[in-house]
Design brief:
The protein is built from two helices and two strands. It is mainly α. Strands 1-2 form a two-stranded antiparallel sheet. Strand 1 (about 55-60) and strand 2 form a beta hairpin. It is rod-shaped. The N and C termini lie close together (about 10 Å). The mean pLDDT is about 95.
């Protein structure tokens, strides 16, 4: 059975959307991992006394910093990551909806061509 050209285009679009969904899922996982690590670091930092030495990473270096500066940076990082998490979540919702809609359209088109 030959697949009509418009349905073939929809199938190609569906595959592209699936790839985008997979990329977004990977982004979401990376953001969640970074967010969890930052929250854990903030929690550990809160446990340390104010006179403890604190170091932060800068590329492949460890740089001495103050507890307050590290705390402020971690809070800012967490805030940024939470915004990014919401953005990626919305992207994921939109692409999932597009995938479902396109799947329904393709299924309807395929049923129509079989009759």
């Amino acid at each position: 059975m030959d697949i009509p050209e418009n349905v073939q285009e929809q199938l190609n679009q569906f595959q592209q959307l699936q790839q985008q969904a997979q990329a977004i899922a990977m982004q979401k996982q990376a953001v969640e991992t970074q967010l969890n690590e930052s929250k854990k670091a903030l929690k550990e930092l809160a446990k340390s006394s104010d006179d403890n030495e604190v170091y932060k990473t800068a590329g492949s270096l460890l740089i001495k910093t103050t507890k307050k500066d590290a705390n402020d940076e971690l809070k800012e990082t967490i805030e940024t990551l939470e915004i990014r998490q919401k953005t990626v979540g919305k992207q994921e919702e939109r692409i999932t909806k597009k995938l479902k809609d396109l799947q329904s359209t393709i299924e309807f088109a395929m049923r129509s061509t079989q009759q």
